[in-house]
Recover the amino acids of this structure.
């Protein structure tokens, strides 16, 4: 993963934020079939790395 440059990547970051908001508004727990890959990716990246 690359860390974003806030000055160079602001348009991309805004688009990603909009897409993320759309996904969460549609499926807050990522339970829909179309979001299973995303849910698994998040779980694999962050399991045992953050406390909720």
């Amino acid at each position: 993963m690359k860390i974003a440059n806030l000055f160079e990547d602001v348009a991309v970051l805004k688009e990603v934020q909009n897409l993320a908001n759309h996904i969460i508004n549609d499926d807050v727990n990522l339970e829909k079939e179309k979001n299973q890959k995303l849910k698994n990716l998040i779980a694999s990246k962050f399991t045992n790395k953050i406390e909720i």
Observations:
- The CA atoms of residues 5 and 20 lie 19 Å apart.
- The chain has two helices and no strands.
- The radius of gyration is 13 Å.
